[in-house]
Amino acid sequence: MATAASDAVHFISLLILSGHVAGRIRYSIQEELEQGAFVGNIAEDLNIGISELRTRRFRLISDDTKKYLALNLENGMLFVSERIDREQVCGEHSLCSLAYKISLDNPPEMHSVAVEIIDVNDNLPHFSKSAFSLRINELLAPGARFPLESAHDPDVGTNTISTYQISRNEYFDLELQKRSNGDVIAELSLEKSLDREEQPTFYLVLTAIDGGIPQRTGTAQIIITVVDVNDNAPVFDHKLYRANIRENTPKGTLVTKVSAVDLDEGTNGDLVYSFTSHTSPSTRELFELDPVTGEIKVEEVLDFEKAHIYELGVEATDKGQYAQVGHTKIMVRLIDMNDNAPEIEVMSSSNMVPEDAQIGTMLAEISVSDPDSGENGQVQCGVDKNLPFKLQKISSNNYNLVTSDALDRETVSVYNISISSWDRGAPPLSASKHILITVSDVNDNAPRFTQSTYNVFLMENNRPGASIFAVAALDADLDRNGMLTYSVVDSRIQDDSATYIVTINSKSGNIFAVRSFDYENLKQFRFKVKAQDAGFPKLSSTAIVNVIILDQNDNAPVIDSPLMWNNTASLEIARQSLYPGYLVTKIIASDADSGQNMRLSFQILEATDKSLFNIGLHSGEIKTMRNLKIEDATNQRMVIHVRDNGQPRLSSTITIIVSVLANITERMSSELHQHRNVSQFSGPNVYLIIIFGSTSFIFLAIIILLLLLKCKQNRTHNVEETRCCFPSSKWRSTDAFNRRAVLHEGLHYSGAAPTLPLSGTCHYAVGLSAESSKCDFLFLKPTLNSNDMNTRITIGRE
């Protein structure tokens, strides 16, 4: 744009300077040529050499912003540089051209170039809308004309619209007129009378045709609506309608539907239905007519017994300016129905019956009836077969309600008896009535405990008067028949009455201990409780309560052995016996408790020398751990702690004094000869002493018997008379003692010293050995005469 302006200024200055303007050159081309199409050879037409085109600045100048044409500076030809649309460049003008200037320098020259654009038929005729509507009254006479919308074609000359055509039909044709400017106008002409009822709408196609080669066309649809006139009366599809309905048909039930047709349209064809004046007011109350749809429905209950047939007159009226009317008639016939259900009446009734009532007990008197006639009035009556009741027929329509089975209030306490009655109509109608019967209670159920046996675990040393358990019994009866009282059945528990040991709350069933229980004296007991109702006769049942006393750790261990004096026991041991593992003594203790509470353990709390003795944790055996040394004390003191495994743990202690003797013949400690308090001997110790003494006596008797038998045997075999070891002179002899027999028949005891031959008179004395303080056994000591052997031999157990 700026280049074109500068070229124009330069061109004007050349005109002013030189005053020379060249002639005008004209070219003609068609629109829509392709880019590069040849327009003309300007260099040849202006007689300018090819070599001068660049030296003289040969150029094309245009006032248009679009460069439709361009110059080729190589050959001076003018060509199309952009597609040219004549309708876009010149619009609807018949003449269309493009103006350019050719400018040269040295010397300056200016030439005009006009390029005429020739129109081609490149546009279709088109209408402003694709469809047009016309409304034509059906009463118009033939010859009427109606102007039509014209089409538009941007082409000019012969390429513009030249004629119109309409689709073939027998009612309309086209009339063409040409205006002064050459445009063609089309009008629609009515050729035949219209009837909207025959054809209410016409669809025609209007075609616009131009004069170009080839011809081009454009179309539009013409929709012609025939305007209705109220020239038709409504016509019903039936002159007489018939309908059969059942009596007692519910309100709103459709009887029939009338329908009329009016060939007119709009308000001329809108119909309103109504009853005619020939329809009675009473009939109008029974039926309802919808004025729009023509539906006839039941308005009130119809009764066959009042009327069998109803006749209705109906008319249809259109809404035209001059309304027209059509008529019809409806015959409605009623069908008789079994429309009366039986009626049940309870004449007399008892609302309560005892559960022990006899079968056949009457509860109610019932009467049934049906207002219908014939089979519709014949009725039957019954009750549910699953109930313990039945109906006994007294007469044709009278019944008695009686019991048919045994009653049990605890199973079913209330019966809602439904009495049904039905007739023999088709279909049968039925009715029902409910009678509420309450079953009264009798005392026919004994109380039942939740368990036949109750196990109660009770810790000993319980608080007297505290609740230890609660029993519960159930009674299915009501009121007094179900009111229970609890009691303890009198029985013996350790020579005491059960009522002195436990008691029970007669209302709640809570059981209380009258006294505190000791597991060591009473580990388990049982008693019976009774539950009894307040009915008549009174019914009861019992249950066993088994009370198991649980042990508490309430007894400390009791040391049974060795024997103690003021919780102290003394022992004497020969020095040569003290080797590692030697059993000094064994602590025997007992605990009156049970389980873990009686599981005992032993421990040395204090000792003169803890390295000399140890004690088994559970055995209670005190053994030496090493040999006795010279520097060790001869009196060793130990404090033994005995405790159980209960919670809390209980314990006892014993002090043991061990005296170490130089040899076995030493006298026992003077402590053992001290008077012992008889009260220190416990019950178990007394039993042990008695058993041990009896055993020793029997053992001694057996020894004496064996000696007597031996002496008798020697005399029988004429063996040399011996002294049989009795102090009596009856058995003495001056003969020498048979040494061989003595050697054979020396006394043998377990653990005794080696047997030596005895000579001379032999005496046996009973006495205590040096170790009697340790083992509490008696020993026999043989005594020899000083003439035979100046030696005393002690026969006994180490």
Fold blueprint:
Elements (H helix, E strand, L loop, with lengths): L1 H17 L5 E7 L7 E4 H4 L6 H4 L3 E3 L7 E4 L4 E4 L5 H5 L6 E8 L4 E10 L12 E7 L7 E3 L13 E6 L5 E7 L5 E7 L10 E10 L6 E11 L7 E2 L3 E7 L7 E4 L2 E2 L9 E5 L5 H6 E3 L5 E4 L10 E10 L6 E11 L7 E7 L2 E3 L7 E8 L9 E5 L5 E7 L2 E6 L10 E10 L6 E11 L7 E2 L3 E7 L7 E4 L2 E2 L4 H4 L1 E6 L2 E2 L2 E2 H4 E3 L5 E4 L10 E10 L6 E11 L7 E4 L6 E7 L8 E4 L1 E3 L10 E7 L5 E3 L5 E4 L10 E9 L7 E11 L21 H34 L22 H6 L17 E6 L4 H4 L3 E6 L14
Parallel strand pairs: 1-7, 8-14, 16-23, 25-31, 33-42, 44-51
Antiparallel strand pairs: 2-5, 3-6, 4-5, 6-7, 9-12, 10-13, 11-12, 13-14, 15-18, 17-21, 19-22, 20-21, 22-23, 24-26, 26-29, 27-30, 28-29, 30-31, 32-35, 34-40, 36-41, 37-38, 39-40, 41-42, 43-46, 45-49, 47-50, 48-49, 50-51, 52-53
Short description:
With about 800 residues, the protein is mainly beta. Helix content is about 10%, strand content about 40%. The N terminus and C terminus are likely disordered.
Description:
With 798 residues, this protein is mostly beta strands. The chain has seven domains: 117 residues, Cadherins (Immunoglobulin-like, Sandwich), CATH 2.60.40; 97 residues, Immunoglobulin-like, CATH 2.60.40; 101 residues, Cadherins (Immunoglobulin-like, Sandwich); 98 residues, Cadherins (Immunoglobulin-like); 103 residues, Cadherins (Immunoglobulin-like, Sandwich); 123 residues, Cadherins (Immunoglobulin-like, Sandwich); 77 residues, no CATH class. Helix content is 11%, strand content 39%. The protein contains ten helices and 53 strands. Strand 50 and strand 51 form a beta hairpin.
